[in-house]
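About this split. The held-out portion is used to measure sequence recovery: a designer receives only the C-alpha cells and must propose an amino acid at every position. Recovery is the fraction of positions where the proposal matches the reference. Here is one held-out target exactly as it appears in the evaluation file.
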C-alpha cells in the first residue's frame, strides 16, 4: 500500500507547483519501486522494506500473542529492549531536541504507570480539547485524542466535511500530525530495537504462572 501510494504521489508531483517538488521526486525514486508495466522505469537505491515481514520471520514477543500489527509490536518492543529504554527515557526527541520533531515538544517516550508497567506510547498522545470551551470541545467529541487508524480516518473526514471552528480545525490537524509522526517514529523504534537484539539487551517479558 505504501509503495503504491508513494508511487502515485511521485507522478502527481510532475504537475505540482510545490517549491520542493523536484527534491521530493528524487527522494521518492530512491525508495519506491516502479510499476513493472509502467511507462517510467528506475531502480531505487534504497528500496523500502516491509517491517511486518521482518517481524514475522525474526521476532516473537510473547505478549503480542502472535499479532504483528505495529500497535501490538511497538509497546512490547519498548518493554523488552533495554537499548530503547536507556535511549528514550530522556527528552531527546522534540522540537528543540537532539532528535528534532516538527510537531511535538520535548517528549519522554519511556514512562511507567503506578504498577510499574511501561505506558504504550500511543497513550501518551495528548487530549487536544484541553483548554477549549465546551462548544469547541463538543465539535471534536470522540476525537479528543487521535491514537488509532479508525480515529485518524474519522478526523480526516471531519476536516473535509465537518463545520469546525478555526481552533478546532487547527487542533485536529495537530492531532493527526502527531499521530502520523508517532507511526513513523514507532517504525524507527522497531528498527532500532531489532538492530540491537541480543540476549544481554533484551528483558525476558514472558508471562509467568
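Reference sequence for scoring:
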Amino acid at each position: 500500500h505504501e509503495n503504491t501510494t508513494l508511487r502515485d504521489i511521485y507522478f502527481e508531483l510532475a504537475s505540482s507547483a510545490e517549491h520542493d517538488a523536484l527534491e521530493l521526486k528524487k527522494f521518492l525514486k530512491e525508495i519506491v519501486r516502479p510499476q513493472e508495466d509502467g511507462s517510467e522505469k528506475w531502480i531505487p537505491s534504497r528500496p523500502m522494506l516491509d517491517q511486518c515481514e521482518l517481524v514475522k520471520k525474526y521476532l516473537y514477543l510473547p505478549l503480542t500473542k502472535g499479532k504483528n500489527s505495529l500497535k501490538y509490536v511497538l509497546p512490547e518492543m519498548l518493554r523488552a529492549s533495554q537499548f530503547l529504554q536507556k535511549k528514550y527515557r530522556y527528552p531527546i526527541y522534540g522540537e528543540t531536541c537532539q532528535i528534532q520533531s516538527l510537531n511535538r515538544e520535548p517528549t519522554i517516550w519511556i514512562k511507567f504507570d503506578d504498577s510499574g508497567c511501561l505506558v504504550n506510547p500511543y497513550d501518551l498522545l495528548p487530549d487536544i480539547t484541553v483548554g477549549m470551551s465546551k462548544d469547541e470541545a463538543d465539535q471534536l467529541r470522540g476525537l479528543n485524542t487521535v491514537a488509532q487508524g479508525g480515529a485518524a480516518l474519522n478526523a480526516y473526514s471531519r476536516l473535509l466535511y465537518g463545520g469546525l471552528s478555526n481552533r478546532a480545525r487547527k487542533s485536529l490537524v495537530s492531532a493527526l500530525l502527531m499521530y502520523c509522526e508517532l507511526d513513523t517514529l514507532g517504525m524507527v523504534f522497531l528498527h532500532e530495537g531489532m538492530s540491537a537484539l541480543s540476549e544481554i539487551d533484551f528483558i525476558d517479558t514472558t508471562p509467568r504462572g
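Annotator remark: The longest strand covers residues 93-94.
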